[in-house]
Amino acid sequence: MSEQPQAERKSTPEFSLDTWAVLVALFAAALIRFGLIPRVPW
Amino acid sequence: MAAAIALPQDPPSSVSTKFLRLLPGLALLFAIGFAGKLLEKNINAYAKGHHLAVPNIEYVLWAILIGLVISNVFGLAEIFKPGVATYEFWLKAGIVLLGSRFLLGDVWKLGGVSLLLVAIEIAGSLAFMTFLGQAFGLRPKLTTLLAVGSAVCGVSAIIATKGAIDADEQDSSFAIAAILALGAIALFTFPLIGHALHLSDHAYGVWAGLAVDNTAEAAAAGALYSDAAAKLAILTKTTRNALIGFVVLGYAIHWARKGEAHAVGHKAAFLWQKFPKFVLGFLLISLLATVGFFTKVQNTALANLSRWAFLLTFAGVGLRTNFREMRKQGLRPFVVGFIGEIAIALFTLVLVIVTGHLFGF
């Protein structure tokens, strides 16, 4: 498989700005939920 | 096998290069937003310490004003542009996180009322803007773009419609410039009108969400009134955004039937493609908050994180607004947009006041 031509390798999926925003927000929510970010000051 | 042949990819290092290019603009957004926050805090503290009656100017307004001055007086240097353009990303992430402040029942109740008002607003705005465009002799596709921009959700709707109806670059630039200029005017006039009419936070928030076209400006117009108004403005505006696919699909079919745009293949796939995914993220976080997935402290942390995201957004709103660039686009689309927006603002104001009496807000 390592000799597979580079042209045939599948590229990573392209996410829209919307989807990235959702993923980043959910990731941040998970960090807060599981205690990795204990508090966020304002 | 032909389908498996990929186009040449950027070298792996380009990801880090792209990220590095964002840093100056991101730093500028943060510096402006934080300066706004410091100004609000320190001016209030000074006024209190010296027994001065100074109106409370929120960080939102400071951030927008500083951004406007930089953009219109000094100009935004190229190095900052990629990072500043991320303000829309922060807006959407902020809206998703704001879901923690809404229990799903509230979303259902408020969203239900909003949905009814949004449906009336969209139908009325599309009809009126189309009439105005025709009366002023604007090109038909420019009229469509202005109608969609003012009825649904500003720049995103114009960009989505442009692709669907094969409109040209010039028409979409006209429409975007008009919608952005009008959004900037709404930012400063809506809170003044709201206070003059003694609108409740709820009524004002729904009005801002219905009548201000761009999501960032609607959120800012709400935040300039109060935190509660900002929440309602964002919820109402998000309801409007959720309907973007249906409106764009309708126009795509209309122009395809006239033979002036490509035909729409799979309608469900088209709707999904145009649907703003951050609405789903907002509903998911709201659902998690409703079932008690987050503690009270965690809910506060999520809300604060959302405020930081909005702080970057509001700085971006000011930096993105360049009146000189807008003036270059010509007067007629702006005049049509201006008359239309005043009519829509008045129409939705009456709608909100009447509904407020009926539903008690």
Task: Considering the chains and any ligands shown, give keywords for the structure.
heterodimer; A: 42 residues; mainly alpha; 1 helix; elongated; disordered N terminus; B: 361 residues; 17 helices
Architecture overview:
The complex is a heterodimer of chains A (about 40) and B (about 350). With about 40 residues, chain A is mainly α. Chain A has one helix spanning about 15-35. Mean pLDDT of chain A is about 80; it is low at about 1-10. Chain A is built from 1 helix and no strands. Chain B is built from 17 helices and no strands. With about 350 residues, chain B is an all-alpha fold. The longest helix of chain B has about 35 residues, at about 15-50. Mean pLDDT of chain B is about 85; it is low at about 1-10.
Approximately how much beta-strand content do the residues of chain A carry?
under 5%
Q: Please identify the structural class of chain B as seen in this structure.
A: mainly alpha
Structural class of chain A: mainly alpha
The span between the termini of chain A is 51 Å
Helix content of chain B: over 70%
